Amino acid sequence: MTDKIGYTRKGDVAVLRIKNPPVNALSHAVREGLVAGMAQAEADDGVKAVVIVGEGRAFIAGADITEFGKTPLEPFLPDVCKRIEDSPLIVVASMHGVSLGGGLEIALSAHYRVAQPSAKVGLPEVHLGLIPGAGATQRLPRLIGVDPSLDLITSGRQVKAAEAESLGIVDQVTEGDPEDVGVAYAENLIATNAPRRPVSEMAAPAPIDWDAAYDGTLKKGRGQISPAQAVRAVQAAAELPFDEGMLAERKIFMELMETDQRQGMIHAFFSERAVGNLPELKGVEPRALQSIGIIGGGTMGAGIATAALLAGFNVVLIEMKEDAAEAARGRIAGNLSGALKRGKITQMKYDAMTNTALEVSINYDSLASVDLVIEAVFEDMGVKKEVFGKLDAVCKPGAILASNTSYLDVDEIAASTSRPADVIGLHFFSPAHIMKLLEVVVAEKTAPDVVATGFALGKALNKISVRAGVCDGFIGNRILATYRTAADHMVLDGASPFQIDKALVDFGFAMGPFAVGDLAGLDIGWATRKRKAATRHPAERVPTYPDKICEAGNFGQKTGKGYYIYEAGSRGGVPNPEVSELIAAERAERDITPRDFTDAEIVRRYMAAMVNEAAKVVGEGIAKRPLDVDMVLLFGYGFPRYWGGPMKWADLQGLPALLADIESYAKEDAWFWEPAPLLKQLVAEGRNFDDLNKQAAK
Description:
By secondary structure, the chain is an alpha/beta fold. The protein is built from 29 helices and 19 strands. The strands form 4 sheets. Strands 12-11-10-13-14-15-16-17 form an 8-stranded mixed sheet. Strand 1 and strand 2 form a beta hairpin. Monomer.
């Protein structure tokens, strides 16, 4: 028995207590201890039942992430589950906190399950590009049927105890000390002569149309293969004896272990945890934060205010006029009412947020005591400087002044105040109360404790916060401008916007770039093109047809027409034939003979442009690490998670081949396709982007 499992006896019941803080992950020592504990209970004269319980805040939260990538050691988890299930004693799992992945698989190998009302269960393996590998695809369908099993396994979602009980995953929900509850339940089973009840011996579940379920799951996952493969594993539970089904599950699990998608999702998993871990913030205490001011109550300002209220901050929102202030209050109330309807907050909390925690004002003096203020006004340097001048005058010493600018120079904004050390960029993504990404833009004179406070705010708001340096567009929008330009070039040269959108959706993006433009509003890109026109490089190829779309008053979804035409009440749009006419006219004007593009070539060029610009962003220090770029694209720009991000995708494709393609494209357009110095250096040294991530972690 290892020190990770405690053994005690209470009458006829042996208790195995898992002691592997903080969340009882299934380390090698825990697996060994469970096997030894079962043997000890069976050898203990008079013991009739075993209760497995977790110490601390969880039953078992899943695999031990410190063992990821290492050669697994026996006993393997499927064997541990079989050992528990095969016991001649009655085995009860008493669950509290979370029982996830292998933790739920341990519980499913017990004969009975009891849970605390606050407990949650789930099988999140699909989020790592895998399927459950210790019998859940075989046991769960026998216990609760195919459809609910597929829902849980292919989505990876967590369910609360009440739903788990209604589905039949747990037998009883009882509040109390988990050990006491488990022992009482086991004693009752003994007293009533309840039988052992191994799930593996239950009848196979009824079949469904497996091919339809597979195809539907693959489509829903936008090309992610692990949820669809889980359908095949559950199919084995319906069609094969249990032991053969276990072999089928293991075969699928091991095949998925070797896929690029699994590598991408593991990279995303670890990068999400590493992205906010910055050496420069070690030992730096953030400033106190209780009240937040927001300038501007449009969609963005109202979204930031909503996120701040939901995180427990007091909010003072400033608008120019009374009617605008009331409209902002209405937007925030509408956002919060959505949280109320979804059960995220109570009516009492909603009332407190809207009536007490929120103050809407037209007077800048109302910001006198706030700890941090975020401006979310029109994207114009003159307007921003005017706002910061007012903030400089009214905000208390030590208050942090933040800009939500998407592109503009935060150093220039900071220079318009008497306290540049207190100025930072906090670039939220719309809708700000839903989107997970926050770019923390560090200006030249931003104080370290102001940076730390930006990250502390991001954590409080449940955001993925990424450090960015100052340049036009920071990390995300700078890279976006480049890969969007690559798409524009392909349109001039012969591809259609609609083919490009479809190719990139097939690659795994939620939407293609032209559909995204329609969603965001084509007038935004139009304004950016005008802003950059004076400083544009003479070699840059800039199409004029997008400006003509805007000049006709067509800005996308909000006007009902852009690249696509949007009918009221219909989801999505249909291609706008006027766009194709404008493109054909511009090609003729430029004397371009259009050529065909394959979908594969579209994806390769689009991704090459993204990676090349991202390598420049990392090489210049705008992003500190390649993983920072990956997290920005994953959480702000709809990049498919199963590729891990553009830098991970590039590593998986191979940097030498990607550089060779970029150099071949440069023969057509040497200015746009100039290879990033960092990319050339890595190829010359035989290294990749992940090497830079590892180097930064040392």
